Amino acid sequence: xxxxTLAATAALMALALPVTAQEALDADADGNVTLDEFQVAYxxxxxxxxxxxxxxxxxxxxxxxxQAAIDAGVLPG
Length: 77
Ligand SMILES: [Ca+2]
Ligand SMILES: [Ca+2]
Description:
Recoverin, domain 1; mainly alpha; binds calcium ion; 5 helices
C-alpha cells in the first residue's frame, strides 16, 4: 500500500513539474547547457552572447545561468 501510494505521488509530482528552460535546452540532460545545445534552440546566438551568459566561465550554462538569462530578458521564460 505504501509503495503504491509513493509511486502514485511520484507520478503526480512528475506530471506537475513544468519543463524548465534548462531542461528544454539540456539535450543530454547532464545538467549543463553547452554552446552546441544552446544553438539548437537559438541558432543565431553568437559565441560572445553565450560567453556573456556563462557568468562563472566554465564553458557551459548551469540552471542558475540559464535562469539569469531569462530574468535578464535574453531568453524567453
Ligand atoms: Ca547538456
Ligand atoms: Ca557556467
